[in-house]
Amino acid sequence: MRALVLDGFGDEDAFSLREVPMPVAGPGEVRIRVHAIGINPLETKIRRGWMAEVMPITFPAVIGSELAGVVDSVGDGVAGFEVGDRVAGFAATGSYAEYALSRVDAVALVPANLSLEDAVTIPTGAETTRRAIAPLRIAAGETVVVNGAAGGVGSMAVQLLVADGVTVIGTAGEANHEYLRSLGAVPVAYGDGVVERIRAAAPQGVDAVFDVAGQGFIPAAIELVGGPDRIITISDFTAPGLGVAVAAGDPTRLTADGFADALDLAAQGVLSTPIAATFAFAALPDAHRLSEGGHLRGKIVVQGL
Ligand SMILES: NC(=O)c1ccc[n+]([C@@H]2O[C@H](COP(=O)([O-])OP(=O)(O)OC[C@H]3O[C@@H](n4cnc5c(N)ncnc54)[C@H](OP(=O)(O)O)[C@@H]3O)[C@@H](O)[C@H]2O)c1
């Protein structure tokens, strides 16, 4: 099969498209013909070598996690999935490839009326949001700030919180304010003066903060909430120095529990993540370049080979 292979860390041009051995589904795994790939900023950091200490990789390497496709073989002991099923979720072997293996608990069936391109926008946003905000014990009627509300994770976080009856203040660049309003959030511009702008938008006070984008927002978050306890970040690894917890997912243990129902809600038209841009497989390096630009509305999708 063909895959985009890294032979070492580097810029976007470090990928080479070539033949690699076909993976074989082991016990508890399915092999998936990849039809759509979701690009996550973590993968650009892995490619650059910034994650080498915490997530070591061996070269040549095929990276990528989020995928949607069709099951083409099942390993021993697999129940609930069969050849031909449309699934979405997380790859165990790297999704930047024609075929990838997934643990059966890391994928979920895609409802018939949801395209695989739309399905692939869901798993990371929903799983990350649910896992990260669980310790915050957010209740209906509370006010929560989502910092970095317009991207792949933020878009989903806003929709899940709004659906739970939470008042959401979302930070974004001006170009994304109307979009955030359409999701049910109150938009506020990030940058200097953000604390005052959020206080003006939420005179009732802020109960909790979900920091998606990082970018030095933690001191402002502490000021708004009045302490570090009801703040969680997924991207600022300096936050523990200020008493704020980081929710870091272990890629080898992510499960479909956090997103399977979100696929159903997407199929019902109740939630969606806009596709910021779609790229052909061979143009995946351009998708990384766009991701690193850092100003996305929704999610970048790469088509399978
Ligand atoms: N720990 C975990 O489990 C986990 C899981 C998933 C993702 N992550 C991390 O979470 C981060 C976000 O992921 P993502 O997929 O949502 O990224 P993304 O789709 O690239 O979105 C990034 C968003 O950040 C916003 N932004 C840019 N500069 C900002 C600033 N100074 N202040 C506030 N917002 C700003 C942008 O909004 P505008 O366009 O409006 O500027 C953009 O919508 C990444 O660092 C990723 O690696 C962590």
Automatic annotation (TrEMBL):
Keywords: NADP. Signal peptide: none annotated. Residues 10-302 form the Enoyl reductase (ER) domain. InterPro entries: ADH-like_N (IPR013154), ER (IPR020843), GroES-like_sf (IPR011032), NAD(P)-bd_dom_sf (IPR036291), Zinc-ADH_QOR/CCCR (IPR051603). It comes from the Bacteria. GO terms for molecular function: oxidoreductase activity. Gene3D superfamilies: Medium-chain alcohol dehydrogenases, catalytic domain, NAD(P)-binding Rossmann-like Domain. The keyword NADP applies. Pfam families: ADH_N, ADH_zinc_N_2. This is NADP-dependent oxidoreductase.
